[in-house]
Write a structure and sequence with these properties.
By secondary structure, the chain is α/β, with parallel strands linked by helices. It has one domain: Alpha-Beta Complex (Spore Coat Polysaccharide Biosynthesis Protein SpsA, Chain A), CATH 3.90.550. Helices cover 39% and strands 21% of the residues. The chain contains 10 helices and 13 strands. Helix 3 crosses helix 5. The longest helix has 35 residues. The two termini are 25 Å apart.
Length: 270
């Protein structure tokens, strides 16, 4: 059964990238729309906290980083508020190209079969990961460390709701916030080779700190304590998720579960 899937493309209003992105997306038989990238967080969503950013990230965020975080959170909040439990959104940034030969419509069915609510389709870094299973000529993997980047990912209504509920402020770049799977439940499962490609274009996200205040000694001590706690939580969650990997591997090897999946996912190998 094909679930309720739509594509949202994050792009600055009036961006010259939109013409290329439109041509790419029109070749995919999935409803899509542009989302005008925000510059400030929308009312009712997490707001930027410079003091927390300096203490727990080491510097203030740039205006572009704040806008990027606000854009992704706004899309997730809208999905979370939708009425349909089977709603899925494929979020892509406007410098991403989709593989025209890949069946993106089948991704929600794959995720439902594997009981996954969040699936990366691109990553900036091949961080340490665990092999889960083969899906025909692609591999389902799970990143144990931050792969970084928010160029392309599939997310369910339930996973979006969990992420939004986990975030109280914008205090770090959104890709790092999303990669905190031990805190937000966005477990970093991904398909590899990635079915999306980031074009080599100038980034619209300036990362230079725009805050004049430097971290104090108290800030640095708090950062060290926080990082130590984060390390322990990540380690513990990765150990627990190895049981989840085995469960997913067993489900995707079960012919009664995968019978309705298309050919590109049907032949799971142990």
């Amino acid at each position: 059964m094909c679930r309720n899937l739509s594509i949202v493309v994050i792009s600055l209003a009036g961006s010259l990238r939109r013409e290329r992105a439109s041509a790419d997306l029109n070749s995919v038989d999935i409803p899509w729309t542009f989302f005008d990238a925000l510059r400030v967080p929308a009312e009712g969503l997490p707001q930027y906290d410079e003091a927390e950013a300096i203490r727990f990230w080491g510097r203030g965020l740039s205006k572009a980083e704040i806008g990027c975080a606000a854009s992704h959170m706004s899309i997730m909040a809208k999905l979370a508020a939708s009425g349909a439990d089977d709603s899925w959104t494929l979020v892509v940034e406007d410098d991403v190209v989709l593989d025209a030969g890949f069946d993106f419509r089948s991704l929600p069915d794959l995720c439902e079969a594997a009981e996954i609510g969040y699936l990366r389709l691109y990553a900036r870094s091949m961080a340490r990961c665990q092999h889960v299973t083969w899906l025909d000529q692609r591999e389902l993997i799970r990143f144990e460390r931050a792969p970084m980047g928010t160029q392309a990912y599939l997310i369910s209504r339930r996973a979006a709701r969990g992420f939004i509920d986990s975030v109280t402020t914008i205090s770090r770049p959104v890709d790092w916030e999303m990669d905190r799977f031990w805190a937000n439940g966005l477990y970093n499962y991904a398909l590899f080779p990635f079915p999306c490609l980031e074009l080599t274009l100038p980034s619209s996200i300036a990362k230079a700190a725009e805050s004049a205040r430097a971290p104090t000694m108290i800030d640095r001590a708090a950062w060290f304590a926080w990082k130590s706690k984060e390390y322990a939580l990540r380690l513990s969650e990765n150990v627990r998720l190895r049981h989840s990997d085995r469960r997913i591997r067993a489900r995707l090897a079960d012919n009664t579960v995968t019978a309705q999946l298309p050919r590109q996912f049907a032949r799971a190998k142990m």
